[in-house]
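Aim 2, interim progress. The first record below pairs a target sequence with its structure tokens.
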Amino acid sequence: MSPRPSKKLRAIDTPIVLTPEEIAFVRGMVIHEDDQVIALNKPAGLSSQGGRIATHTLDELLWAFARSSGNRPRLIHRLDRDTSGVLLTGRTKPAAGFLGKALMGKRFRKTYLAIVAPGAPQPAKGLIELPLRREMQGREAYMKTCAADHPDAELARTRYRTLAANDEAALVELSPETGRMHQLRVHMASLGRPIAGDVRYGGALTLGGRPVPRLMLHAAALTFPHPDGQEMRVEAPPPADFEGLRAALFGAD
């Protein structure tokens, strides 16, 4: 997540030729589309932009929606590669500019689902206010909690509530009020309840007698001001791997 449009989110100006399979793949992610915005349900394993894997990123796949003028949608924010769920794009430069300003103005409300372990956080709901700072370990960037007066401290706030729990794990709803890198992952780890599958921050790799397939974090909903003036909410159903682990741990809804 990013609190403001990153320089890394600049549009790729050179068109990319996509295969029919790639075009069908990205079009299959669409959960809302109009003249101003396209909302997508990004699968886990797909980099939003700038991934190191030699496959197209979501940003590059957006050429599937390019218009005859050569304009294509622009990412407004990002998700970590192994996080699934809602991503918003602006179809035009004015729409992308409007949405970027709304994001910087904290007018976006994001809702995530996560499976954490062991058991429910204590208390079962609350507000985490822990500043974060970035630290490099080799080529990898990590975020760590720090004192508010640390020179590199960034304010970070996350609301959470427990939706289901047993002695082994919990399903939690997370609502970030700021957008720091890895914020939800580090904040849940700070409570002693890292997100399952999060190798970087100590998440469980097996739960309910089965392996955790990936980072169990899903961007379930996004509420934002539409460029046309109304408030809009888009939702993305969790993927099969998330639902399968949730059902194994807590039973069917």
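The second target in this work package is listed in the same format:
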Amino acid sequence: MSVRRVVPVVRSEAVRETRAFYGLLGFEQVMDLGWIATFASPTVPAAQVSVMASDLTAPVAPDMSVEVDDVDAVYAAVRESGAEIVHPLRDEEWGVRRFFVRDPAGRVVNVLSHR
């Protein structure tokens, strides 16, 4: 298993203003699903930040996203560890397979792979 990228998720009801702010820092918008937008550095594309008000298909909004090369293997390892699964493994219509797990500090981590 390998990690491809880690993206902090900023929760904001002021999505438009937050979007403008990260543009001032040099980020460019690379994804916008309406309820979540992701911004990346044009020179270091894996340097990213996402902004959302709430998650469209999950019961809670994550604090960060971790993209891995094999989400099924990570899901199996996390379940075996006894960690709390907050949102079950599922395929999403926007092309990712993901689940949420709570880390020991109480943060919700969205673990995903692109299909």
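The chain has a mean pLDDT of 93. This observation will shape the mutagenesis plan for the next reporting period.
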